[in-house]
Every structure is written in structure tokens, then in C-alpha cells.
Specification:
Length: 154
């Protein structure tokens, strides 16, 4: 990099604005990257949680663990991700209520069964991984801070 010479307050303000825009762009990019990398550990944790916490009898644990869990990037300017489990209609009630509705061979065609251990299989697994996501975000901020410091030194 060459030398930087500033003549007057107007040039200093222009350079400061350009520097601020570049830093903000880098920060958004790095934060998004950190969120996406951290969220992958949440996806893995959700699959493992389904295998561990849902009933093995009837293979509900295998069925739910095979569900598609994806990380969606937000379309807005602020870095964010959304973790979504799809493929089975009952994923939400299993996680939030700890209940599953299934067919029976008895008198009623379907029964609603309570599975207390299943409640929170997805949410709690993701919350457990939150510190890893925070560490990824801290690393992203550190990368940007190092770049800014390096650019400021010239």
C-alpha cells in the first residue's frame, strides 16, 4: 500500500466515510459467515437429539432424525440465519408440546400420545449449541478488527 496524504478536513471526512463503509461491509460479511458456520453445529445437534430423545420403539427417533434440517440465510442487510426442520408435519408439536399423533390398531383410527422426553428435542439442542455460535461471531469480529487495524497502520 502506498502512502496516504490528507489535505484538509473535507478529504479526511471522505476517507473516514469510505473506511466506515468498507468496515461495515466486511463486518456484515464476516458475521453472516460466522452465523452460518455456527448454525451447522445446531443442525448436527438436532439430529443427534432426535436419535437420543425420541422413542426408539416405532422408530420415531429415526424418522425425525432423517428430517431435513437446513440453515436459511436471511435476505435482508443484517446478518441472520434461520434453522428450519422440514419433511414431517408433526415436528413442531413434538418439539413444543411433546406430543405425537399416530395411527393405532385399536378402536380409534388415530391417537395423540404424550412423549415428555421429546419436548424441546429441537429447541434445546439448538440452545445448547448457542455458545459455539457466539464464539464464531467473536472470531468474525476479531477478523474484521484485525483488518481495520492493519489498514489503519497502512
Amino acid at each position: 500500500m502506498g502512502d496516504l496524504e490528507i489535505r484538509g478536513g473535507r478529504e479526511a471526512r471522505q476517507i473516514a466515510r469510505a473506511f466506515e463503509r468498507a468496515a461495515a461491509r466486511d463486518l456484515r460479511y464476516e458475521l453472516q459467515r460466522g452465523l452460518e458456520e455456527g448454525a451447522e453445529s445446531m443442525v448436527d445437534a438436532a439430529h443427534v437429539s432426535a436419535l437420543r430423545n425420541l422413542p426408539k420403539r416405532g422408530r420415531l427417533n429415526l424418522l425425525v432424525a432423517a428430517a431435513r434440517i437446513i440453515v436459511l440465510r436471511s435476505g435482508g442487510g443484517n446478518p441472520s440465519v434461520k434453522i428450519v426442520a422440514t419433511g414431517i408435519d408433526q415436528l413442531y408439536p413434538i418439539d413444543k408440546l411433546g406430543v405425537v399423533e399416530h395411527p393405532t390398531f385399536a378402536h380409534r383410527p388415530r391417537v395423540r400420545q404424550s412423549i415428555p422426553k421429546a419436548e424441546g428435542w429441537f429447541t434445546e439442542a439448538c440452545e445448547h449449541e448457542a455458545p459455539k455460535v457466539r464464539r464464531e461471531l467473536e472470531r468474525a469480529i476479531d477478523r474484521v478488527a484485525r483488518r481495520i487495524a492493519s489498514a489503519a497502520r497502512g
